[in-house]
């Protein structure tokens, strides 16, 4: 159940959003080692964000997963997601923070229960 919540101050149209969702889903699944059918991505564009006192393109993301995260994986994910943001939205990798959460099964609900 890897989940990526991504916020950016760049307005995102439907075509670009679809590309980002597809690319981020593939990257998350491949790097964490879980099926794409488990991955959820939330993308919020046009969110007011200032980074270093500037409103230039910037983004903030959070990755939550039950297992699969760690220093090596987190570095690969950070790089892959920064590349997607730079390519699709012109967000420089120096203007993107990402937080990783490795969670316990009992802290996630799905299908009327917990994992």
Automatic annotation (TrEMBL):
Keyword field: Cytokine, Isomerase, Secreted
EC number(s) from the headed UniProt entry: 5.3.2.1, 5.3.3.12
Class of this enzyme: isomerase
GO cellular component: extracellular space
Gene3D superfamilies, alphabetized: Macrophage Migration Inhibitory Factor
Compartments, as annotated in UniProt: Secreted
Family to which the UniProt record says this protein belongs: Belongs to the MIF family.
The protein, known as: L-dopachrome isomerase
Organism: Colocasia esculenta
